[in-house]
Amino acid sequence: MVYADRVLSLFGRRRRKSAEAPTLNSRDDATLRSERVALAELTPPVERFLGQAAYLQLSLFESASRAAQLGPTVAAKRASAAIAEFPLEKHRALVGLIEDRDLDAVDLMEPFAPAIDRFRTVTTGADWHESLITSYVCAGFLDDFFAALGRGLPKDLPQRIGSILEVEDAERLIIAELRWSIDATPRLSSRLALWGRRLVGDAMLVARSATEQGVDADTETRLEPVFTELIGAHTRRMDKLGLTA
Amino acid sequence: MVYADRVLSLFGRRRRKSAEAPTLNSRDDATLRSERVALAELTPPVERFLGQAAYLQLSLFESASRAAQLGPTVAAKRASAAIAEFPLEKHRALVGLIEDRDLDAVDLMEPFAPAIDRFRTVTTGADWHESLITSYVCAGFLDDFFAALGRGLPKDLPQRIGSILEVEDAERLIIAELRWSIDATPRLSSRLALWGRRLVGDAMLVARSATEQGVDADTETRLEPVFTELIGAHTRRMDKLGLTA
């Protein structure tokens, strides 16, 4: 618990290492650039993007705050509450972008509630460990995805969305909390690895439905390289916990 | 929901009207001053005060975030999440005061967990309305109490504790959310009035156990005028919701 506190104290709100850097294999810049253009064509209109992203963060906050309720010790509760601040802050910042446009955040979020509520229900962990993995895997994957999808938005929005979403401090906190018990408990680690695999599938479904065209063959083709990259990031994230992706 | 959004946008983090002003009846300043001195004598040592206050805010965050989970609409969830930010921010600020002293927040909070967890369990509302009333009544009463108790702390701590705890924006948000449905539903209002009465009793028990001496006859005598004042504030708070205290 002292380690987690130290991590919490040391870091500011650091930006995630830019997802622009080639990550998975040695594909050249031109390929990457064309993939990004292809994804930008799937970016929904600003209002749809912001309503959906804001409600998703509210939902991720619900999941993260549930981890605080399930925390078995004072240290676990304290760390979980600190982790829950991140989606709450992202939600508030996205609502701020909506209100800057004199739009009503609730009106924009409402259409996405049924699907995202379903997502939250199926990704609800059975205990504190699973709940933290939900925050780690789903927020990790979907923050990356929405930041990438946001690059197709007009004006300064891509940069603003990026700086709201691409913050990796919650991940450091979760690693500090979980790594020890995962290393010490093989049975826990196999259960959490399976749980993580389930979650990334659910996160991909949400990501796919967030695009402008919805699910059709063309969308799949455009999404595929992006998903490959995001799954690479997911695998590295699981590695950091000592879990098989 | 538009009203709640407007309330949310309009206010900054305003300080609560100072609890120093005479409130309940026409007791003169000298009486008030002597009561405050009497309470200051019950102030526990800094470490005990901060550990307890920090864990209480963590616990109030748990209750408030549960309201977000129970919120029946997108508007209710969004308002509840905004309300949950307040205890989370207070918790973080109090942990900051602990860490400024190079102490471990978890170590200082741990001794108070059993009693405060019990308090949280008995004050858990059955639905969203009751959960919001829990945030309103318990946080209202206990923030006032800890701010008053903190006046016996050394150096600049009374002022710092006061500016952390005496923020009334969560109350405005809760009023904006609940007032309408209370006015429209007599049955709800009598149920919530009863719930509020229960809660203030639970809050008084926590307040009493937070003092240095614990429960003895002398403590009771010193606490009585303070509780009278805090119950006056509680009654005005319930009035604002259209509920009998």
From TrEMBL, chains A, B:
InterPro entries for this protein: Ferritin-like, Ferritin_actino
Domain Ferritin-like: 48-208
Annotated Pfam families: MiaE_2
Superkingdom of origin organism: Bacteria
Entry protein name: Ferritin-like domain-containing protein
Organism: Arenivirga flava
Upper taxonomic lineage: Bacteria, Bacillati, Actinomycetota, Actinomycetes, Micrococcales
